[in-house]
Amino acid sequence: MTRAFLPKMCTVLLAGTLAGLALAVAALPAALVFGIGFSALSAPYAELPNTLRTPPTAQRSNLYANDGTTLITSFYQEDRVDVPLGEVAPVMRQAIIAAEDARFHEHSGVDLRGIVRAFTANRRDGATRQGASTLTMQYVRNVLSTDPRLSEAQRAAATEVSTARKIQEIRYALALERELTKDEILTRYLNIAYFGAGAYGIAAASKRYFSTSPAKLTLAQAALLAGLVRSPDSDDPINGDADSATARRGYVLDRMVEAGVAAPEEATRAAAQPLNLRPSETPNDCTAVPEGHNDWGFFCDWFTRWWNSQKAFGASVDERQRTLRRGGFSIVSSLDPGVQRATTEQVRRIYPAEHPHAMPTAVVQPGTGRVLAMSVNRTYSVAANPGGQQNHPNTVNQLVAGGGTIVGYQGGSTFKLFAMLAALEAGLPLNTVFDAPRRIVTDFRVSGTEASCGGYWCPQNASASVSGRHDMWTAFGDSVNTYFAWLTERVGADRVVEMAERLGIVFRADDDAQLARHGAREWGPFTLGVSATTPLDLAGAYATLGAEGTWCAPTPVTSITDAEGRRVAAGQPDCRQVLDVDVARAAADAARCPVGDQSMYQGCAGGTATGLRGQLGRPVVGKTGSSERYATETVVALTPQLAVAAMAANPDEPRDAVGRAVQTAMVEAVGEILSYALRDEPVRDFVPPSETTAWRVTGQRTGN
How far apart are CA 660 and CA 625, in angstroms? Predict the structure, then answer.
């Protein structure tokens, strides 16, 4: 008999067996059936599908707080996490072998005796009551039917009832058994098998049914789980038939006694026990954050948006989501539970969840962009709201970071920072003086606005008392509108807009984006914060001063580790130097003035939130901002270690003004957040700018 003829002959004979030709199988020579025949039928290991050689088992990804242990939530399509065989109780290994493949350690991947026995029994009973698949063959079928890289048709073919499919399983099983040890095959099987109730793999099943780990399973528990793999949906004792599950447990216990791996008296006691289920579900997605930490939902939501934007995880959003839900990543986020709690307490002290006004707040770390807290006085929920309201008290809209239907809120005078930076970068020093009038008529053409004088933008100061002679220190401290309108004319509005974009301000509103792209030269009002922004953008922009000109993209992660324990580069900070160090230092020096600190050159002479320095007890810079008619209020504060931005607005009705009075409470709240977050941090000061940046003499224009 030739070598080429053997595989064909074995294939025909096996096909005959599987089609019901039991007599033909029984007549096969023993040497052919159990020896050289199967060896010839086996596929070469190198020719196996990649998915069998390196199985891509889908595993859930876990998102943790910055301590690396506090679970925020999990993401999965199939609840699964792989464990080594050493972390599976011996009784569980014995139970699955007794239930599914008693001769597992004796055959070479295919149990021909089992095939004949199953055929004979099924023909006698007139129904399919016994299977003939070994654990190795079942493993092959499970891998091919769940491989995400295969098409739906290919996965369906892996489970079809056909002779061709069974022969393929046999060939692949034989190849695997020639390459892998029995323990390796058993490990793979236990980590991919479906146990019902959404639990894939023994780790997920142990938790789902008994709230325990695979290493701690008892005899009764192991027998129940082993019994479920035959009919995981119908026998599922949580959602299916508990009586059937109990009966299957008894069957497995009997098989374990027959195999000599369980004493009869132990099996009898186990069979008499109630199921004693302790079901627990692995949280999935952001609506499944722990009940007592609903406020984490907004951070979690922003994390998923961030993940969906990372090209490292796939070419499309759908592909990136599949990577997250199947990749088994361990993600240590930047969320600090303590800082998050303190932020939420302060936010809700000002506005409860039921209040139409919201105070979204973000806390960002300069130099890394890591976001320690994101909070807003809302319940993260898809539940319906009374009165048709969109965002209170329930919402999953991203009120803190923006996105979707949320374009942001007007930041008011906090945008004066960008005009000051553009001026410093253009060579104007901090002591640039202008005699700022109550109202100024600029060269910027406008229409349809109250701040228009003959078609030109003509803003006025919020109070007549702040008009007069100013430099950047005092103008920023007193928030002198006309000074910054004049400064914007000198450097060009387009440079102010470009500066804001350089520091991470995103134009989410269509009108803002159009002006930034096509009308920036005429967008003088931009410097007074008429563009929509978010607390996260603002905190990131001001954090650039704390990092001496290094802007870092806001990031929700500290580290990402894949299922193999490898660090993923996408979890590292994304930072770049966007400002000259001396320019950043000069802007920070002037930004001491609004919050009651004193510049290194004694340039401050008043501010809009002068109590913050005393409340915090350490060097601080910042700015307050009010939009027209106090529709929104904004407070930003910064130390070298942390930046906090809070904005008050009505996300459902922008015309519903929050009023000026809330600003004082917001300043105090921001101070409390910083005080808590920095309680164990050393006091650090900002580095003073050079005298050249502060005092350089230039030509100056006097008032209009």
Answer: 10
Same domain, 639 and 520: yes
- Residue 284 above 60 pLDDT? yes
Q: What is the pTM of this model?
A: 0.81
Grade residue 567 by pLDDT with cuts at 50, 70 and 90: very high
Radius of gyration of the chain (CA): 34
- 3-class SS string, 77-141: CCECCCCCHHHCCHHHHHHHHHHHCCCCCCCCCCCHHHHHHHHHHHHHHCCCCCCCCCHHHHHHH
* pLDDT computed for residue 49 by the predictor: 77
Residue pair 591/623 in contact by the 8 Å Cβ criterion? yes
Q: Are residues 552 and 681 in the same domain?
A: yes
Residue pLDDT, tens place only, 77-131: 888 889 999 999 999 999 999 999 999 999 989 887 766 665 565 555 554 444 5
Q: What is the residue whose two structure tokens read 């930003």?
A: 636
Tokens of 379: 């319940």
- Token pair 């020896």 is at which residue? 35
| 335 inside domain | no
Which domain covers residue 502, as residue numbers?
386-393+408-695
In this structure, the strands spanning 575-577 and 557-561 are unpaired
Place of tokens 């369980």: 262
CA distance 531 to 547: 25
Name the token pair of 644: 């906090």
Both tokens of residue 402? 């923006």
**145 touches 155 (CB < 8 A):** yes
CATH code for position 498: 3.40.710.10
- Asked if residue 262 is part of any domain, the answer here is yes
Is 375 a domain residue? no
365 is a domain residue: no
CB distance 516 to 533 below 8 Å? no
pLDDT at 701 over 50: no
What are the tokens at 218?
Answer: 């008892």
CA distances, 110 to each of 3, 6, 35, 171, 636 (Å) = 21, 17, 12, 9, 69
Whether 109 and 232 map to the same domain: the answer is yes
Which residue, among 627, 583, 620, has the nearest Cα to 607 in the 3D structure?
620
CATH number for the domain harbouring residue 144: 1.10.3810.10
Helix or strand run (H / E) with residue 207: helix 202-210
The answer to whether 698 touches 428, Cβ cutoff 8 Å, is yes
Among candidates 468, 618, 444, 598, which has minimal Cα distance to 523? Answer: 444
Structure tokens at 442: 């600029």
- pLDDT tens-digit series, residues 376-427: 999 999 899 988 788 999 999 999 999 989 999 999 999 999 999 999 999 9
d(CA 314, CA 673): 37
- For residues 172 and 104, the answer to whether their CB atoms sit within 8 Å is no
